[in-house]
């Protein structure tokens, strides 16, 4: 049996003002799974994802990523983040660096690759995400979809064991959503991914498991066909009736 890459048990996170973002949140993700989190805005999906790499700090529960205790103050989160790629809603590219420089920066500085190795890897990845011709361009010269594909290549350049996607298409114009989802579909065959998205078609097509969240909790989870065609929980049914 494969060991879990993510283990969350009883995780609670409260924001100022008493906003309960996570309420006894529980989730396990094993190697090779594509787990997609869906649910209404404010249901805790992004908070759950951000907690996995230390961008949010739950005050209660057990949270292990790649076997490392994320909630232990002694944990070196920078070391863990080297193995956990994350793609955000907004691309967070360095505007003063070219596409190629954005993708090679972390492998050289964090992984210790020499520049030639990092460049070869970056060129390969830019081809994989369909923007090899933009290697010398700067972020201001790219469309939103192209920027997000650079962000994906940059995360992949670290050769992560786990990829996190936090609503990667929500900041894109509608005509650019498809190109980013297509890249993610292509990656899904050989990677462990945890994705927060409002794209139900993508969840149905690509996920090995769909997790419906509401009010900081996992309400229901299962294979896409089960969740989308025969949801058991009234909250899941109500949500899907509004979005499908």
**Strand-residue proportion:** 25-35%
Overall structural class, as computed from helix and strand content, comes to: alpha/beta
- Based on Cα principal axes, name the global outline: globular
Could you list the spans in which at least 5 consecutive residues all have pLDDT below 50?
Answer: none
Number of strands: 10
Q: What is the residue-mean pLDDT, rounded to a whole number?
A: 94
The major sheet is characterized as: 6 strands, mixed
Please estimate the helix content. 25-40%
User: In which order are the strands of the major sheet placed?
Assistant: 6-7-8-3-9-10
- The CA-CA distance between the termini, in Å, is 35 Å
- Report Rg: 18 Å
Task: Sketch the topology as an H/E string, one letter per element.
Answer: EEEHEEHEHHHEHEHEEHH
Put simply, the count of helices is 9
What key phrases describe this protein's structure?
single chain; alpha/beta; 244 residues; 25% strand
Describe the structure.
The chain has 244 residues and is α/β, with parallel strands linked by helices. Helices cover 36% and strands 25% of the residues. Strands 6-7-8-3-9-10 form a 6-stranded mixed beta sheet, with helices on both faces. Strands 2-1-4-5 form a 4-stranded antiparallel beta sheet, with helices on one face. A hairpin with a 2-residue loop joins strand 4 and strand 5. It is globular. The mean pLDDT is 94.
Short account of what is shown:
With 244 residues, the chain is of the alpha/beta class. 36% of the residues lie in helices and 25% in strands.
Give the SSE map.
Layout: E1 4-15, E2 19-30, E3 34-38, H1 45-52, E4 60-65, E5 68-69, H2 77-81, E6 84-87, H3 99-109, H4 115-128, H5 144-156, E7 162-166, H6 174-187, E8 193-196, H7 200-206, E9 209-214, E10 217-222, H8 224-229, H9 234-243
Parallel strand pairs: 3-8, 3-9, 6-7, 7-8
Antiparallel strand pairs: 1-2, 1-4, 4-5, 9-10
Helix pairs in contact: 3-4, 3-5, 4-5, 5-6
